[in-house]
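So, who can interpret the following?
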Amino acid sequence: MILVTGGAGFIGANFVLDWVAKTGEAVVNLDKLTYAGNLENLASLQADSLHIFAQGDIGDHARVASLLALHQPRAVVNFAAESHVDRSIHSPEAFIQTNVMGTFQLLEAVRAYWGGLQGDAKTDFRFLHVSTDEVYGSLALTDPAFTETHQYEPNSPYSASKAASDHLVRAYHHTYGLPVLTTNCSNNYGPYHFPEKLIPLMVVNALAGKPLPIYGDGQQIRDWLYVKVHCSAIRRVLEAGRLGQASNVGGRIEMPELDILHTVSGLPDTLRPRTDGQSYST
């Protein structure tokens, strides 16, 4: 059995579904159910004994400790986070509270639990922290791709809070010996994506005949990672990652926002043609 935090959100829900389908191992799913967490993402597991849902906050030390003691997971995978750059600019406190203080409380509960394990249960235990490549900052067109040794240069309250959480996880490994792993991913897309993010927002707006959002001149290039590929990578890191080290996970699909706009703008006509025969773009 494993414990997943933030498992009702976009990436977390995809991971829980993937985990149950691929491994047949039970999951305890702790999620606060904020605006981005939705149990409908996990509707197919509603009657599945392999999925145990528990509502709660990673910042609630007692709640986390009780779940660890009750279910005795062999690993913890932490997806729980506030994750929207624009929201972090307007309301940074929530990001510090969850991404920094919440991660701290989670680490404290996990450290106490792990410290009480014996033998192989202690040796084989893993804490996997899921993070973002936003911690590395931005690249110029001529810069090489980020590597795991790239220095941290966060540019927003969101990325700064995730950088802080990464450093906390690393510190708990070097200070207390906690067997940790970290992944830093590029921009995800796929099922259950909350429509405040670029690709789902474009799709929703295109279907509604609304203007498609573009930041700046639309020439910003991002790497795009299909969420199910990301979930497979996380499973692999959990199985074979090197303790105390980070693993970058990218999709190798680099596209400017304008290219995404042009791709998305034609989808409604193909997927859901209008009854009047007109294009959604007219």
